[in-house]
Structures are given as structure tokens and as C-alpha cells.
Amino acid sequence: MWQRHRAWWVGACVVGLLVFGAALPSAALELDAARQQGLVGEQSDGYVGAVSASPSAEVKALVTEVNAKRRAAYAEIAQKNGTAPEAVAALSGQKLIDRAPAGQWIWANGRWTQKK
After folding, report:
1. Is 42 exposed, middle or buried (CB count within 10 Å of its CB: 0-12, 13-18, 19+)?
2. Could you point out which of 29, 37, 55, 92 has its C-alpha 20 to 30 Å from the C-alpha of 61?
């Protein structure tokens, strides 16, 4: 029973992270613009990635910034719930991919693809 409760709590924290993450002032706007332009996409590991094999310095910096914030948030949630940060990141990654609108780039089956 504790395992189910903990899984629910981690899920609730991840949803909170997604809502909070969407409200980040400058990074969220830049991230949203980069997503809409097809420059970055969501990965199943909970992090964003550059869609292009040779992204611009601006895209690389955005990916690094967003992923650092996510890594810190995942670690905090994991510590509060007694679970591994990787588990929190994977759950978040799946939720982000599920919530991604059609046309957005996602990492699936070992390659970038546009969500249908």
C-alpha cells in the first residue's frame, strides 16, 4: 500500500513541477518558442533535447538551462519521496510527452519524430 501511496505522491509532485515549470518567467517563454519552432523536443528521460544534430549556441544554452532546472527539481522531489531522481525524471518525461500537442517534436524509438 505504501508503494501505491508513494507513487501517487511522486505523480502529484511531478504534475506540480510541470505546472510550476510552465510558469518560469523567461525560460518558459524561450522554451515554448523553441518548441513551436521545432528546435527542441521532449525526451522520455524527462529532459529536453535539441532536435537538430548541430543546434545553435542559443539552443544549446536553452537546453542546458532548462535541464539544469529540471534536474534540481527532480532531485528535490525524489529526496522528499525517498525515491531515485531518475524515477521522477522518467515519470515526468512520460507525462510531458503525453501532454505534448500534435506537431511537437518528441524523442521516440531512438529518433526525433513529430507527435501525431
Report:
1. buried
2. 92
The span from the CA of 79 to the CA of 89, in Å, is 13
DSSP sequence for 28-43: HHHHHHHHHTTSEEE-
Consecutive sets of 10 residues in the chain, 116 residues long: mean pLDDT of each?
A: 55 54 54 96 97 95 97 97 97 96 95 96
The grid cell for 22 is 510552465
Q: Is the distance from CB of 59 to CB of 49 less than 8 angstroms?
A: no
Contact 44, 58 (CB under 8 A): no
Amino acid symbol at 26: S
